[in-house]
Each structure stands twice: as C-alpha cells, then as structure tokens.
Amino acid sequence: MAGDIRVSFDQIRKDGQTAGPYHTMQERYAPSQEEILASARSFIEKTSEMDTRWEEEIEKVIATNKLSTTFVDEYVSRRFACKHKVAFKDIAMFADYEDDLIDELWAEIAKDIE
Length: 114
Hints:
Elements: H1 2-15, H2 23-63, H3 69-85, H4 91-113
Helix pairs in contact: 2-4, 3-4
C-alpha cells in the first residue's frame, strides 16, 4: 500500500495527473483544511468581540464599588471555565451564559441600591 501511494505521488509530480487510488483524498484535503481554518477564524473573532464586551461590563460593575473584588472574581472564573469548555458550535450557548452572568452581577448591584 505504501508503495502504491509513492507511485501515485510520483506520477502526480511527473505529469500533473491526479490519478490513482488516493487522488480524491488529496483533492478534498485542502478545502477541508480551509473550512476548519475559516471556522477557527470566525470563532476567534466572535470570542474576541465577546471578551471586549465582557471586559467593558466588568469594569462598569467594579466602578460601582458595590461588590467585592472576590465576588466579581468568582464570576470572572465562572466565565473563564465556561469559555474553555465551549466548542465552535456552542458559541451561541456561551454568549447566552455570559449574558446571564452579567445580568446576575447587575442584579446584585441593584439589590444593594434598593
């Protein structure tokens, strides 16, 4: 089998023919890698935007001086743990979870005001 692969690769190099038992695999490899890279880039872009939004919200929460740093740090840790469990397909779930955490923090601040 390894000899067949070598012969097929040598043939492609020699005359540019994509023939032999493994040519379809070669033709599909690059596009599938591009899909994976595009998905990864999209994921990074989305999480980067979410990170920026999260940082802005946390800064606002801290600026109120209504919650202890330890209390806020617990929420930061919970978000960090969730973010690192998330898979590409679960980005919407993570966004919802992050929104819930922010809402909980603001609810805690609202309790102190009342």
